[in-house]
Each structure stands twice: as structure tokens, then as C-alpha cells.
Amino acid sequence: MKKQPDARFERALATLALVIISLISLANVVVRYFTNASFAFTEEFSVFLLVILTFAGASVALRSNRHIRIGMLERMFPRLRTPLIIVQWLAAVLVLGLVVAYGGQFAWEEFQWDSESPGLGLPNWWYVIWLPLLGLLMLWRVTQMSLDRLRGRISDEP
After folding, report:
1. Are 84 and 73 in contact (CB under 8 A)?
2. Secondary structure class of 135 (helix, strand, coil)
3. Where do the Tripartite ATP-independent periplasmic transporters DctQ component domain residues begin and end (predicted)?
């Protein structure tokens, strides 16, 4: 039996983000129930952590070959399997490359302009820098998964 590829770092990051979202949301509900006021930071942090959770989860899905793709063409045309895997990889590289490029540019501009978050007044680049970083991680994972599929190390079907 082949060992399933794993993305341990992203799995831990997603878990941590989900736990923190749950805890601050629960704390906010409890405080609002007893005091009729709420914490100001919960929405800002929850949205930020939700982005991290989404990108980290997508990275885990990519590494374990559980991402969304159209396998119908691979099943219909088995001789085109290799070119189709390469086309899928190129499409992912294009999209994630744009995310990394524009996300990096956005983070740099937020840093240069000293933009602050509307709720807490924290530097906006603290939130935005995760977009290109996790995009790079996803690029790495989709490349690993594509190479594993081409080499026959993992099944084409999740």
C-alpha cells in the first residue's frame, strides 16, 4: 500500500486557523450574551483566518490529489493522460502565478502606504502578505502532485 502524500504544515495551519476562529467566535457570542457588547476584533481576525484556512485547505487538497479537476477527459482519452496532466498543471501555475504576483504587489503597496485595517488599525500588510505566501505553497504542492501523477506514485483518482 502506497503512503498517501501529506501537507503537514498546511494541515496544521488550517487546523490552527479553524480552532482560533471557533474560540474567538464563541467568546464573542458569550460576551455579547452577558454584556450586550461584542469584541471589536473578532470579525477582522475571523475573515483573515478564514482566508488562511481556505488557502491552507486548498494546498492540502492539491497535495493529496483531492482538488477539483475534470477527470472525464483523462478517462475518455487515456492516451492523452500525460499531456492533460501537464495542461492541468500549466493552468494551475498560471492562476496561482497571478495570485502570487498580484497578491505580492498588493502586499507591497499596503506596506509602502502604511495602510491600516479599518477595525483595529493594524498594518494591512500583516493580513495581505499571506496571500502570495500561501499561493507559493499551493504552487509547490500542485507541482508535487502533478509530478507524482506523471511518475505513477499516486492514483489519478482521489
Report:
1. yes
2. helix
3. 22-151
pLDDT of residue 120 exceeding 70 = yes
* Domain layout of the chain by residue ranges: 8-151
Are the C-beta atoms of 99 and 128 separated by less than 8 Å?
A: no
Tell me what pLDDT residue 1 has.
Answer: 44
% of the chain at pLDDT higher than 70: 97
Return d(Cα 88, Cα 108) in angstroms, integer.
30
First to last CA, the chain: 15
Q: What's the CA gap between 2 and 155, in Å, rounded?
A: 10
CA distance 85 to 118: 43
Per-residue model confidence (pLDDT) at position 2: 58
Q: How many CA atoms lie within 13 A of 15 on its CB side?
A: 7
Closest of 135, 18, 134, 8 to residue 60, by C-alpha: 8
Question: CA 134, CA 117: separation in Å to the nearest integer?
Answer: 21
> Is residue 39 over pLDDT 90?
no
Residues 108-118 have pLDDT tens digits of 999 999 999 88
Task: Give, as one character, the DSSP assignment of residue 2.
Answer: P
Q: Output the pTM of the full model.
A: 0.86
How far apart CA 108 and CA 128 sit, in angstroms, is: 9
